[in-house]
Write a structure and sequence with these properties.
single chain; mainly alpha; two-stranded antiparallel sheet; 5 helices
C-alpha cells in the first residue's frame, strides 16, 4: 500500500457524488451572485437536499475485512476455525445437492488428461460495527486449466452491469418506487427458479 487509507468503491462513489454536488452548488451560487437575486432555484434546493442526504450516510458502507483468510490453512488457524468449517461444509453440501460435480475414480481418467484442482475462498461479512455476521466460503476450480471442447463446451455469465443497477435505483428514486433486495444462495447453480 502507499500509506493511504483504504476507501471502498461505495465510499468513493459517495465522495465523488458529494464533490459533484458541491461543484454544482458553487456554480449555481456564482450564477446567483451575478444575477443579484436572493431566490433559490429548484436545482439548488435539490442539490442541497442531496448534499445533506449524502452527508448522513455512514462512513463505512462496505464492511470488507482485509484480513480474510487466503488459504484453508489460514482459516483453520484463525480464531473462527469452527465457523469457517461450517461455511465450507455448507458450500460442499450445496454443490453436492445441486449435482455440480461427479466423482470419478482416478483410474478412469483418460491418458493425457488431468483432474481440475480447486481451492476454497473465504469472505467474512460484518455489520456496521465490524461484528461478524456471516462466514462465507466458496469452492472454486482453477478454470484456467480447462480446455475448450474437452472440459467444457459453453460459458455464460448472467450478471448485470453496475450501470444497470444505477439506472434502476435512479428510476426508483425518481418514481418513488419501493426497491427490495433478494439474495439467493448459490444462485449461479440454479438453472430455473420456481415461481412462488
Amino acid at each position: 500500500m502507499d500509506g493511504k487509507p483504504y476507501v471502498s468503491p461505495a465510499q468513493r462513489a459517495v465522495l465523488d457524488s458529494l464533490a459533484t454536488a458541491e461543484h454544482l452548488q458553487n456554480i449555481s451560487s456564482t450564477q446567483l451572485q451575478t444575477n443579484d437575486s436572493n431566490t433559490t432555484t429548484p436545482l439548488e434546493e435539490e442539490l442541497a437536499s442531496l448534499a445533506t442526504a449524502f452527508a448522513a450516510l455512514p462512513v463505512n458502507l462496505e464492511h470488507e475485512q482485509p484480513d480474510d483468510p487466503s488459504t484453508y490453512t489460514e482459516a483453520m488457524a484463525s480464531e473462527h476455525a469452527s465457523e469457517w468449517t461450517a461455511a465450507l461444509k455448507e458450500e460442499f453440501d450445496s454443490l453436492r445437492d445441486l449435482g455440480v460435480y461427479q466423482l470419478v475414480p482416478r483410474s478412469s481418467i483418460p491418458p493425457g488428461r488431468k483432474v481440475m484442482k480447486g481451492r476454497p475462498i473465504f469472505k467474512l461479512k460484518c455489520d456496521q460495527h465490524s461484528n461478524p455476521i456471516r462466514f462465507k466460503a466458496r469452492y472454486v476450480c482453477r478454470g484456467y486449466s480447462a480446455v475448450w471442447g474437452q472440459d467444457y463446451t459453453k460459458t455464460s455469465a448472467p450478471t448485470a452491469r453496475l450501470e444497470s443497477f444505477r439506472i434502476l435505483t435512479h428510476l426508483g428514486a425518481a418514481l418513488d418506487w419501493e426497491i427490495d433486495q433478494l439474495d439467493i444462495k448459490t444462485t449461479f447453480l440454479h438453472s430455473l427458479l420456481e415461481p412462488d
